[in-house]
Amino acid sequence: MIQDMPSGEALHQIRLFRRQYLQLLDTHNLTWPSPETLRSSQAQEWIYENLFQTDNVAHFLPPERYRLRILKLLMSKTENSIVDPEEDEISDNLMSTLAELMFSPMPDDATAAQQRNWVTYTPLGPDAPIAGKEPELKLLENRAVISGAGTTGLRTWEAALHLSAYLLSSPELMASVKGKKVIELGAGTGLLSILCASHLGAAHVTATDGDEGVVQALQENAAFNDVKDVMDIGVLWWGRALKGSWMFEKDSSFSCDLVLGADVTYDKAVIPALVSTMRDMFEAWPHVQIIISATIRNADTFAAFEYACTHNEFKMYEVDYPLIPMEQQASLFHSTMVPIKIFSITAPETQRDPYAV
C-alpha cells in the first residue's frame, strides 16, 4: 500500500483513463497517461488499486478479455516509459495481475458476445470533484450491436450519452430536472432514466420500452442503482392509446412534466406510432416538454420524423449543444463520427422558452 497519492496532472490523467476503461472504450479511443505519469510508482499503484485489484472492485470490473487487452498495452507503454532501470520500477501488483489474466480461462468469441457485462458511467457536471470519489452509474449491458434477444436495447447508444451530457452541462439544466415527473421513451439500458432519478433529483421517473426483455434488464439496472423507489418501469407500445396504458391504470391522475427519448427515430416504420404517442402526451399534458436526441444515421428517416412533427403542428426547436470530439470529452464518452442532434418539442398551443427543460 502506498503512502503518497498521485496529484495534479498525474491524478487528472489516471482518473480520465479510469473513466474510459470502466466504460469499456476501444483501445484506440483511450487517452493513455503520459510516460512521466506511467513511470510514477504512485500512479502505477493507484491504477492497480482502482482498475485491476479484484478484492476491491471485482464485481464491477470489465470482462477479463478486456482487462487483459488493456493491461498488456498498459504494461508495454509503462516499460517504454522507463528512463533509468535502476530507479524506475514496474509495479509487482500489475505484473502479477497480468500473469493471472494471461493464464485465466476465457470464453470464446461467440460466448463473450452474448454476455452482459458491467459498464460504469461517470455523470460529471460542472461541479465535478477534483479529487475523491466520483459519481458513478453502473449498468449491465450487452455490447454486441444486436443481442441474442434480437434487440438493440441492451446497450447504451450515442444519443443517450449525448443527451445525458447535455442535461449535466450546466447547473441550470441540472436544477431544472429536479422535482420533475419524467417519462423516457425507448429507455433501453436506462441510462437517462436512472441519471434523472439518481443524480438529477427528478421527483419520479417512468422508464418505458417496447421490448419485454429490455424492460426486465432495465428493472435489474434500476434496482442495482437503488432508484426503484422513484421509478416505475414497464412496456409501452407506441401508437396505442396512452390513456389505456398501465401508467394510467396504476394512477388515473398520472401526470408528466418532461419526456425524454434517445435514438427513438432510428426506423422510418416506427415514426407514425412514435408521433402518435407524442400527440397523445400533448393531449394529456398540454404543457409537457419532449426532448429527443437523435443520431442522424439516415437523413431521410429523420426528415420523415421532422415532417410528421410539422404535420401535427408541434413546435420543434433544435437545441444548441454541439458535439464535443471524443478526445476532448471528460466523461460519458461517445463517438461523434455520426451527427447527433437534440430537439425540444412542445404542443402546438404551448409558447415558452424552447431551451428550458
From TrEMBL:
GO MF, one annotated term: S-adenosylmethionine-dependent methyltransferase activity
Superkingdom of origin: Eukaryota
GO CC annotation terms, alphabetical: cytoplasm
InterPro entries given in the database record: Methyltransf_16, SAM-dependent_MTases_sf
Residue ranges that the Swiss-Prot or TrEMBL entry lists as coiled coil: none
CDD domains: AdoMet_MTases
Protein name as annotated: Uncharacterized protein
